[in-house]
Design a protein that fits this description.
Layout (H helix, E strand, L loop, with lengths): L2 H4 L8 E8 L7 E7 L4 E3 H7 L5 H20 L12 E4 L4 E3 L2 H15 L1
Antiparallel strand pairs: 1-2, 3-4, 4-5
């Protein structure tokens, strides 16, 4: 089990695994497939673009969820290097979830470099 699969928190999108496939018709090309939890909702970016005015209590609620997720990652010695409005999801209940694929990109690069 890799690091991303071990990270489970209510404010983190679950990561199930990664698969690498060598392209048959394109030498040197590797396809990377990530399997993650489906989040029914929207990204923070889309929500902010579609919302005319923000309720302060909702902003506090979202910020609290994001900070709790970041605290969990930091407590597990993981740094999310690409946190932005497109890597935060709001589910249909209003819960904030941080996408781990951005963390996974760094691990995939390390895995690919080790294969060479």
């Amino acid at each position: 089990m890799n690091l991303l699969q071990k990270l489970e928190d209510t404010n983190i999108v679950l990561y199930y695994g990664v698969k690498f496939d060598q392209a048959i018709d394109e030498p040197g090309v590797i396809y990377v497939y990530l399997a993650e939890e489906f989040v029914r909702g929207t990204t923070l970016q889309s929500y902010l673009q579609d919302t005319v005015s923000l309720d302060l209590s909702l902003v506090r609620h979202c910020a609290k969820g994001i900070l709790q997720g970041l605290k969990y990652l930091h407590d597990n010695d993981v740094v999310h290097r690409f946190l932005r409005d497109t890597s935060v999801f709001l589910d249909t209940t209003g819960k904030s979830l941080i996408l781990k694929a951005c963390i996974g990109q760094d691990l995939i690069i390390v895995c690919l470099n080790r294969r060479d």
